[in-house]
């Protein structure tokens, strides 16, 4: 399930790391946050390198919807419910700075970005109150939103809040230009180099341990989506949320603007200019990674919805991606531990990282050169408002604990040795050890079902044919290879029992 953007992307492979190299700053992660951070630092004369575990864009950025918007679904009212007006305005200012930087970069580097309006619409009468609340919160935050009683679209819409002059783009075209610009400033990007950890070395430097050797750095930035180091316990303040997307060829006219529903199940729509004409992109059906049953059903349901309202819709690409929702609604950008300024992180964008990620990069680079923007405090990684978020954090972790024990109990005993049917996976108990067995493309594999991050029991994702951890969102290929998440190691491979195929 490769995204529309990754499918057409033509980004040349980047360098292999030379072990023993030393940099002022190593940025871990070659998504939007990492590349913009590296570029802003390099532009300020800082000697920086990017280390990417897979390929540039392989994380969430390469599979996003690609909306560059300050009207972000119902984010403003959610932030307003937890924070002061000042914090809400600072969040919007941060996103405005991110959006302006991004659109300027696109204009200067010939990355097409199309100006369109963004709408948060009510799918039914019940969602109208959320639409009105979003209008009120965005007005308070200084956005020029308007309230619409009618929306001219072929799917159910009972009113909307609208913000003119937002934008949409192909995120891989953006990353390709960013990567080229980072390298033109002499900053290397090392791809296919998984970072396993960061520790303090003997001479006061940080040591970045990768699968291909070590690098030394004075500072490290974790731009890895969810942070890969457990020091600040950020995994306990984030909920990993996976959603589904599909691009359709359609004969019906495609609505011009960008739309997202105010309620659940989420329906997010936009137009995309494909090589053979316009496509309709539909996203939604989000859920916590590894929880909520069959993912195939969620992906299929999105296709049925699109066909109901666009009868000729034919899916040409289907994919899925995940992002991380912070317990107190604002992103976390700053030190991994209070006062530990040599390791910084940026996460918690709640599916609005194309502006938040750039804002995070501006804040990180600004702090590094002693000139942080005024709004940076609202996105701090450690802030007093987190005390207010403790009940939510407790709830999030209560659910995690429940899934930890449920996963271990769910592992069932099975003695027949039969391989799961094609495309299926199951967790079995062999002695005390839960084993994940699946069959994909005719090959049956057995791996340990225990996620190496914090020992959750993985569950089978039947849409993508992966093993997903319901605790903190780590994901693995059928053979156990790490795909994403706070884990930095793969699931342990196990031998097939004799007599099975
Ligand atoms: C379905 C969906 C739709 C979305 N749509 C929108 C949208 O329309 N507009 C919007 O603003 N936002 C949207 N978002 C959110 C946005 O796409 C993300 O917040 C943003 O792309 C995150 O960028 P990032 O650089 O922080 O993370 P990523 O793009 O995930 O980059 C992190 C990188 O770190 C690498 N990495 C991880 N671990 C390691 C390791 N151990 N060693 C080395 N490298 C590592 C990964 O391979 C990855 O490339 C959406 C999110 C989802 C899930």
UniProtKB/TrEMBL annotation:
Pfam families: DAO, Rieske
InterPro entries assigned to the protein according to its UniProt record, in alphabetical order: FAD-dep_OxRdtase, FAD/NAD-bd_sf, Rieske_2Fe-2S, Rieske_2Fe-2S_sf
Domain of life (superkingdom): Bacteria
Biased composition (Polar residues): 489-501
Keyword Iron annotated: yes
The entry's keywords: 2Fe-2S, Iron, Iron-sulfur, Metal-binding
Keyword rRNA processing among UniProt keywords: no
PANTHER family: RIESKE 2FE-2S IRON-SULFUR PROTEIN YHFW-RELATED, SARCOSINE DEHYDROGENASE-RELATED
Protein name: FAD-dependent oxidoreductase
Species for this entry: Nocardia amamiensis
């Amino acid at each position: 399930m490769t995204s529309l953007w990754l499918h057409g992307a033509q980004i040349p492979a980047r360098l292999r790391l030379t072990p023993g190299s030393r940099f002022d700053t190593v940025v871990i992660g070659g998504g939007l946050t990492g590349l913009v951070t590296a570029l802003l630092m390099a532009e300020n004369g800082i000697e920086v390198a990017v280390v990417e575990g897979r390929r540039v864009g392989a994380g969430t950025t390469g599979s996003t919807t690609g909306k560059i918007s300050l009207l972000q679904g119902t984010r403003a009212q959610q932030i307003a419910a937890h924070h002061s007006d000042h914090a809400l305005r600072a969040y919007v200012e941060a996103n405005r700075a991110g959006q302006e930087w991004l659109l300027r970069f696109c204009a200067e580097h010939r990355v097409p970005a199309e100006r369109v309006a963004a709408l948060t619409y009510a799918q039914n009468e019940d969602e109208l109150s959320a639409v009105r609340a979003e209008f009120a919160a965005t007005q308070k935050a200084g956005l020029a939103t308007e309230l619409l009683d009618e929306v001219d679209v072929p799917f159910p819409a009972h009113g909307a809040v609208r913000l003119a002059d937002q934008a949409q783009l192909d995120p891989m075209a953006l990353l390709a230009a960013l990567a080229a610009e980072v390298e033109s400033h002499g900053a290397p990007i090392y791809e296919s180099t998984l970072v396993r950890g960061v520790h303090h070395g003997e001479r006061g430097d940080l040591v970045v341990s990768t699968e291909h050797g070590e690098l030394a750095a004075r500072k490290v930035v974790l731009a890895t989506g969810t942070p890969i180091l457990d020091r600040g316990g950020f995994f306990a303040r984030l909920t990993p949320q996976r959603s589904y997307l599909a691009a359709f060829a359609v004969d019906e006219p495609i609505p011009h603007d960008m739309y997202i529903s105010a309620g659940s199940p989420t329906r997010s729509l936009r137009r995309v200019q494909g090589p053979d004409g316009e496509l309709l992109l539909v996203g939604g059906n989000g859920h916590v990674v590894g929880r909520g049953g069959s993912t195939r059903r969620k992906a299929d349901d999105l296709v049925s919805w699109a066909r109901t309202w666009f009868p000729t819709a034919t899916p040409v690409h289907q994919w899925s991606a995940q992002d991380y929702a912070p317990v107190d609604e604002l992103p976390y950008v700053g030190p991994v531990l209070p006062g530990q300024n040599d390791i910084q992180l940026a996460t918690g964008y709640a599916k609005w990282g194309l502006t938040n990620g750039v804002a995070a990069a501006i804040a990180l680079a600004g702090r590094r050169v002693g000139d942080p923007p005024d709004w940076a405090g609202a996105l701090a990684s450690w802030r007093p408002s987190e005390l207010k978020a403790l009940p939510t954090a407790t709830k999030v972790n209560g659910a995690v604990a429940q899934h930890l024990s449920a996963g271990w109990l769910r592992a069932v005993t099975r003695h027949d040795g039969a391989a799961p049917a094609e495309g299926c996976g199951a967790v079995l108990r062999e002695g005390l050890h839960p084993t994940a067995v699946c069959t994909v493309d005719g090959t049956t594999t057995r791996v340990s079902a225990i996620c190496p991050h914090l020992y959750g029991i993985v569950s089978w994702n039947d849409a993508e044919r992966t093993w997903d951890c319901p605790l903190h969102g780590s994901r693995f290929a059928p053979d156990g290879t790490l795909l994403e998440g706070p884990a930095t190691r793969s699931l342990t491979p196990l031998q097939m029992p004799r007599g099975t195929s």
